[in-house]
Design brief:
The chain is an alpha+beta fold. 35% of the residues lie in helices and 18% in strands. It has a five-stranded antiparallel beta sheet with strand order 1-5-4-3-2. A hairpin with a 2-residue loop joins strand 3 (39-44) and strand 4 (47-54). The protein is globular.
């Protein structure tokens, strides 16, 4: 990973009610960690970055300028959630649901990682899920830089046994991962 610090600012229209914290902490993803002072660190599709919401939008540290389309897609910033909420609010039952946590965006995550993460999530709590995912990445994923690992590709898990995955402490889920 390049050690030069780069920043990318993504503008978000004010009417979108975007909340980075609600989006990353709602249980739809497991590779983002709050660092304090509004910063989160995570690895997405073999890209490490730090993210923070600012009055001007979303600030991404360690994200190359050429990566803007990737991050806009990941955070689903091209879709007007305000317009979707407006349509949903026409139905009184859906209006209550739409009013709950209006800042959450549906992340466009890599399908393989999402599948494995949600296998791990069965009958689990958020802290334990994040721990298992972190051990899976640390034990089987490529090291992108010291202490930062990519999510393992399917071929990196192929050929392993449930015993090989025992250090993950995933229990019965290990067989489903394989």
């Amino acid at each position: 990973m390049d050690t030069t610090t780069t920043f990318l600012q993504l503008a978000i229209p004010a009417e979108e009610n975007f909340s980075l914290a609600d989006t990353l902490d709602c249980g739809q993803c497991f590779r983002w960690e709050a660092e304090g002072d509004g910063w989160y660190r995570g690895v997405v599709s073999r890209r490490f970055c730090r993210a923070k919401q600012t009055p001007d939008g979303l600030l991404l540290e360690h994200a190359a300028e050429g990566d803007e389309p990737f991050w806009r897609s990941y955070f689903d910033l091209e879709v007007s959630y305000a317009a979707i909420r407006e349509r949903l609010c026409r139905d009184r039952r859906l209006a209550r649901a739409a009013a709950f946590a209006p800042g959450i965006r549906v992340l466009r995550q890599e399908p393989w990682e999402t599948l494995c993460s949600f296998i791990i999530s069965q009958n689990n709590n958020l802290g334990r899920i994040k721990g298992i995912v972190a051990r899976l990445c640390g034990g089987f994923g490529d090291e992108l830089s010291p202490g930062i690992h990519a999510f393992p590709r399917p071929e990196q898990l192929a050929g392993h046994t449930e015993e090989d995955l025992a250090p993950l402490r995933a229990g019965w889920r290990a067989g489903y991962l394989l």
